[in-house]
Specification:
alpha+beta; 8-stranded mixed β-sheet
Length: about 210
């Protein structure tokens, strides 16, 4: 189960199987609603997305493919080395900076790669323009089951119904390029981009207390 923490050394992303958008039984094509908090997961203005193959690798490592396809899972992300077998180390390889119109500063997207070439994911830097925090060179990630409280909340939100539902992607909140709208239809990511570290991490249910 996920441990909620306010430490900025460990943060998490919750992914909920979204049967409203997709009913695939293939983890490579299954759609997930996602967010750092319950409010973000339940935000109807964001598109559900497929997961990158780096997260599929985490699910295989933790033997949680079936659970993820049925209900969802959480990804825990750590700046610090973790020794247990369910944690997987990823290394930053490519950094791309884009100006975020209309703001006068840039945001960074980083490609992280595990020791297996096909286990990758992208992460976006969410720190403010005045922050001295840099994107970590190495990260440790693991997949864990939804907590009982999270699962009860998911059931109450009717994510497992067949009603059509969409979430916006991170690239709709952040302008990652200068392409026009027609081009962006083809350049938006096919899988979700993970959120980078922030100064303070909110527990999943904090905003709903």
């Amino acid at each position: 189960m996920v441990n909620e923490t306010k430490s900025n050394k460990i943060w998490s992303l919750t992914l909920v199987r979204d049967y409203k958008s997709d009913i695939s039984d293939d983890i490579g094509t299954a759609m997930f609603a996602y967010g750092r908090t319950a409010d973000e997961v339940d935000d109807e203005c964001r598109n559900s997305l497929r997961i990158p193959n780096g997260l599929t690798h985490l699910l295989n490592t933790s033997h949680l493919i079936n659970e993820a396809l049925e209900t969802g899972f959480c990804v825990e992300i750590s700046r610090n080395p973790q020794n247990s077998d369910d944690w997987v180390q990823f290394t930053a390889t490519v950094h791309v900076q884009r100006k975020e119109s209309p703001f006068p500063f840039t945001r960074t997207r980083v490609l992280y790669v595990a020791q297996f070439p096909d286990a990758t994911f992208e992460m976006v830097d969410l720190s403010g323009p005045c922050s001295e925090q840099k994107m970590p060179q190495k990260l440790w990630l693991r997949a864990v089951e939804l907590s009982y409280r999270q699962l009860a909340w998911v059931l109450n939100q009717n994510f497992f119904s067949s009603e059509k539902h969409e979430q916006k992607t991170l690239d709709e909140w952040f302008n990652f390029g200068d392409a026009d709208a027609s081009v962006c239809q083809f350049t938006r990511p096919k899988s979700l981009i993970l959120p980078g570290p922030v100064d303070k991490v909110q527990p999943f249910f904090e905003s709903q207390l």
